[in-house]
Amino acid sequence: MRNWTPGKIRALKGKRKFATVTCYDATSASILETLGSDTFPLVLVGDSLGNTMQGHDTALPVTVDDIIYHTRCVGRILRNSLLLSDLPFGSYQANDDDGFRAAIRIIKEGGADAVKLEGGERCLALVRRLVEAGIPVCGHLGLTPQSCLAMGFRVQARDEQAAERLIEEAKLLEAAGCFALVVECIPSALGAKVAAALSIPVIGIGAGADTDAQILVWQDLLGLNQNKLAKFVRRFGNLGEVAQTALTDYATAVENGTYPAPEESYA
Ligand code: KIV
Fold first, then answer.
1. Of the residues 183, 215, 216, which should be mutated to test ligand 1's pocket, given the most ligand atoms within 8 Å of the CB?
2. pLDDT by residue (tens digit) across 217-267?
3. Which of 176, 186, 199, 207 is most buried as measured by Cβ atoms within 10 A of its Cβ?
4. Between the CA of residue 55 and those of 24, 219, 229, what are the distances in Å?
5. Which candidate in 118, 169, 174, 184 is catalytic?
6. In the predicted model, is pLDDT for residue 1 greater than 90?
7. How far apart are alpha carbons 221 and 115 in whole angstroms?
8. Does 121 qualify as catalytic in the annotation?
């Protein structure tokens, strides 16, 4: 068992704002581990790995096997944060039996502590079933990237009716047993309303400053991503530039014969 459980994360509501982050590999997980147990209560193996790890334009091609593989990579190292993994596109949309089986595999074979799925009312029966089976579930509303073919990548629930519907679906997900809810790309005022309406932590991404927590993609926040970033992303570092400098220095040192030096060579 990792230090952070769904119960402990729920208990943060109203007590402490917290940051969460995606992670897809063991090296990155080992960096998180050096930060101690309190910095990131939750780490997500998101289906955004389709973009960050696999080079796709969307998360749609990601499979349950891909999620299991990356969850295992992170899980071998992660001891503190709760390990949350996405149910990928196609694994639960056709019917709840598929979704149930996919979640069981992600828990059993991947070693995740909880699963996340996208959508409101249509997911309620599956959420209830998973929770009854002892699988903690995190919801995801607003911009749901698995529906990008239909909704695009733009701000959601701008009008009053859509905003009310989102709040209603958020309440239904909480009632169905979700221990947390991600809301993505919605107006800040709505992010604040959803957080105020629920007693579980609401984790925002592009949902303003008044949600209970935030989540960002590893590559985006560390400046490892050369793509154009969404308005809500802040680059907290520029590791891409650091890597470019190191790689150029290495190539130059090999070319001019200064690497390896005698102290880096065996007698
Ligand atoms: O897949 C992902 O990375 C996500 C987060 C950005 C919320 O779902």
1. 215
2. 999 999 998 888 999 999 999 999 999 999 999 999 999 999 999 999 999
3. 207
4. 13, 12, 15
5. 184
6. no
7. 23
8. no
C-alpha–C-alpha distance, residues 61 and 151, integer Å: 17
Quote the CA–CA distance of 14 and 19 in Å, as a whole number. 14
Cβ(220) – ligand 1 distance below 6 Å: no
Q: CB of 169 closer than 6 A to ligand 1?
A: no
Query: How many angstroms separate the CA atoms of 189 and 158, rounded?
Result: 10
Residues 203 and 142 in one domain: yes
Match 């308005």 to its residue by tokens. Answer: 231
Q: What is the pTM of this model?
A: 0.97
Domain that includes residue 229, residue range: 6-236
Please check whether residues 90 and 177 belong to one and the same domain.
yes
Residue 1 covered by a domain: no
Q: How far apart are CA 52 and CA 62, in angstroms?
A: 11
Q: pLDDT tens across 178-205, in order? A: 999 999 999 999 999 999 999 999 999 9
Tell me: do 106 and 32 sit in the same domain: yes
User: CA nearest 107: which of 139, 68, 76, 70?
Assistant: 68
Task: Sort 235 into a burial class: Cβ within 10 Å, 0-12 / 13-18 / 19+.
Answer: middle
Spatial neighbors of 20 by CB under 8 A, at least 6 apart, are: 40, 41, 42, 43, 44, 81, 203, 213, 214, 215
190 Rama class: left (phi>0) / alpha (psi -120 to 50) / beta: alpha
pLDDT of 136 over the 90 cut: yes
- What domain count does the chain have? 2
